[in-house]
Amino acid sequence: MRNKLITMASLVVTFVIGGVFTYYAVIPSLIRDTGRDIFIGSSTDNGVVQCANNVTITENSISAAVGKIYNAVVMIENYSNNNALGTGSGFIYKVDDDYGYIMTNHHVIANGNQTTVILANDTEVDGTVLGSDPYLDLAVVRIDKEYALQVATIGSSEQAALGDTVFTVGAPLGYEYRGSVTKGTLSGKNRMVSVTVNSSDDWIMSVLQIDAAINPGNSGGPLLNVNGEVIGINSLKLVKDEIEGMGFAIPIEDAMKYVEFLEKGETIERPLIGITMANVGDTYLLFQNGVRLDDDIEYGVVVISTVSGSGANKAGLKKGDVITRIEGKEVKSAAYLKYELYKHNPGDTIELTYIRDGEEQTAKVTLTKSD
Predict the structure, then answer these.
(1) Which CATH number is associated with domain 271-369?
(2) Is CB count within 10 Å lower at the N or C end of the chain?
(3) Which residues contact 166 (CB under 8 A, 6 or more apart)?
């Protein structure tokens, strides 16, 4: 589990979204309401509607949309040397001639060497982790194709609007409550959330905010629109006694950019400027390194040293420079610097804005890749 920070509150990685019973009512015919067509059919004993004919979702029921995703959602158990580390959720997003592919969170499978996938029909199968990335908080798990009961439909978070109804399916609190459904509202888009990667590395994620119930055991589960299309992957929750209903999901577009790399087990290469750095507010660290800043510098990343032969070194950056922008985008801290930097690739040349001796300057820096 990773501790999450947003503003002054603590974000704790949860296995996101669960609760609420599925609906038992069946819509018998085409009803014009929202104008969003999906498939619907007869209801099963557990209340999940099996997809059949085109109908339109009514304002008060998402049962047909649940039927469009329900059997694609799985529970994931993570083990290390047969010792249980935790549980999470995931969903089947793709099949090929031999395998089904499951998307989940990196933190769901982190530190494990054995993965068990529990299907919607309670079948337990072995899963193979193909690849994962802690910064994206994404992982891909493979199972044999015969166990891929249903494949999720990928939608678009970019087309979703604030106030849209969203819902999730997952396994809150583990096995007993697997297959739980919760419904809520898309409360915010492009929320910049500060998290911690690998217990020490600050990082910024751009996420969707939702108010659906979030409980441990649901990380990696799908966030869906009322058409049953995946628009995000549930990942984070804001945790504080006086706060309710603030959860966060990775936009599906961000995940789909990298999923092919993870399927192949490839490491996602991220660019380097070639500096050691500190935040403007890291007073003690700056003092230790003999760096003194002007009092009017309120934010930015301070260069402590440059790596010989790196882009920063060749561009003339030096100790005490304060980087304030990358390609015109504000850099409030090291976490924001990495967020903007990782939008680029090794070999790209970017413009850095920095302050030296009280004057704002710019430099062109060619990015390198990590060894």
Answers:
(1) 2.30.42.10
(2) C
(3) 160, 183, 184, 185, 186, 210, 212, 223, 224, 225, 226, 231
Concerning whether 137 is annotated as a catalytic residue, the answer is yes
CA distance 264 to 102: 13
107 is catalytic: yes
Is-contact 20 45, C-beta < 8 A?
no
How far apart CA 131 and CA 213 sit, in angstroms, is 29
Q: Rounded CA gap, 6 and 146, in Å? A: 42
pLDDT at 218: 83
Torsion angle in degrees (nearest 10) through CA of 83, 85, 87, 92: -80
Q: Over the stretch 22-43, which tens digit does the pLDDT of each residue have?
A: 333 333 322 223 333 334 344 4
263-277 pLDDT tens trace: 999 988 899 999 999
| Measured CA distances, 47 to 41, 42, 161, 208, 278 (Å) | 12, 9, 28, 28, 54
Where along the chain do its domains lie?
271-369
337: which 2 tokens? 């610097």
- Catalytic-labelled residue, pool 61, 89, 107, 194: 107
What is the distance between the alpha carbons of residues 324 and 335, in angstroms, rounded to a whole number? 12
